[in-house]
Amino acid sequence: MRHHNTVLHGILQYVPWPAFERLVAAHAADAGVRQLPTRSQFIALLFAQLAGAVSLREIEAALASQSTRLYHLGARPIRRSTLADANAKRPAAVFTGLFAALLAVAQRGLRRAVGEAVYLIDSTSIRLSELSAAWARFSAASCGAKLHVIYDAAAGRPIYAVVSTGKVNDIAAAKTMPIEPGATYVFDLAYYDYGFWAKLGAACCRIVTRFKRNTPLTLIEELPLPPGSAILSDRIGFLPERQASSRRNPMSHAVREVRVRTETGQVLRLLSNDLDAPAAEIAALYKRRWDIELFFRWIKQTLKITRFLGTSENAIRTQVAVALIAFLLLKLAHAAQKAVASLLAFTRLVRANLMHRRHLHHLLDPPPPISHDNSQFSLQWSPP
Fold first, then answer.
1. Where would a tag sit more exposed on the chain, N or C end, judged by fewer CB atoms within 10 A?
2. Sign of CA dihedral 315, 320, 323, 329
């Protein structure tokens, strides 16, 4: 019979292990470690994400039951107390660095002309227990963190992610994000900041967002409307020259206001610095914001990042980074096979077969038949 490694082994083939080892060395993550190397910690956490395990006890029991198949993964059974200590103390920068390295791998085959990239900026709240209050206190009644993401709408994956405390304002996090010159950035009212917009405009980026309800526009031109569309108006004008405290508005160039009626009847005032594209294109770009909301829902519901294995800031950052790594690994493995069209269906099949000896390309194949060799059970009879 042909030998197959486990499905988890197949997923791990997409990990850039040389980069991982460099990160472990750079951060001295294995210095003084005797029982649980960082590689084994990572595999245990990745196993938890892919298997849907939500507690240290569950991870410990599941890996112990598969001890004979861990050898080919370069891992070993673990004690939950040892894993908890590693999550609290082992540098989370190893895993955030691995996420960045994996992004570089994922983007190697992506070649686009300047201006074709559409990036969505948003954040999602991560609710935490009172045990995280020392670093994540958000209000008198709650603790939490935020995951800030730049999402590539065409590739269907994040290209940047960072975890902050819940008190960090979205626009403050956005101002530290990398900017790709010439790309299109789409975001909502949480990023309403003229200085941020001017920074994107200086990098020749196109922006699509929404006007605040009370923001006036000094009209200079009314553009014709496409017949039979949901576009209610299309105008070019200037934003107010002064901000609060009589500060000069750095967004001094003309902008576009496109009013559009959604399927639910809501009227949106969209803002863009693109004065030439069709109004319907501006409206369609803003509608793509829904993609990042679906991504947040996917990782929360499918990869279970609503429940955490630790309470310290380091443990939370580590688990979120491994969840994002798991998403990228699933995307890469899914793209390499043709049998399963849906990423969600592929993920469910990976979960169901995680420690089975099957090839990732054949998750839909029926299991091999059980061979019954009756010769070893034959009875020799001779007459008396």
1. C
2. negative
Q: What is the pLDDT of residue 1?
A: 40
The whole-number pLDDT of residue 60 equals 92
d(Cα 151, Cα 268) in Å, to the nearest integer? 22
Q: What is the pLDDT of residue 323?
A: 95
Q: Report the interhelical angle of 80-89 vs 38-51 (nearest 10°).
A: 110
Q: Which residues of the chain register pLDDT less than 70?
A: 1-4, 109-115, 244-246, 366-384
Q: Is 161:105 a contact under the CB 8 Å cutoff?
A: no
Region for 65 from its dihedrals, namely left if φ exceeds 0, alpha if ψ lies in -120 to 50, beta otherwise: alpha
Q: What DSSP element (H or E) covers 56?
A: helix 56-65
User: What is the value of pTM for the model shown?
Assistant: 0.88
Enumerate the domain spans of the chain: 7-99+308-362, 188-283
For the chain, what is the total number of helices (H) and then of strands (E)?
Answer: 13, 9
For residue 8, is it left (φ>0), alpha (ψ between -120 and 50) or beta?
Answer: alpha
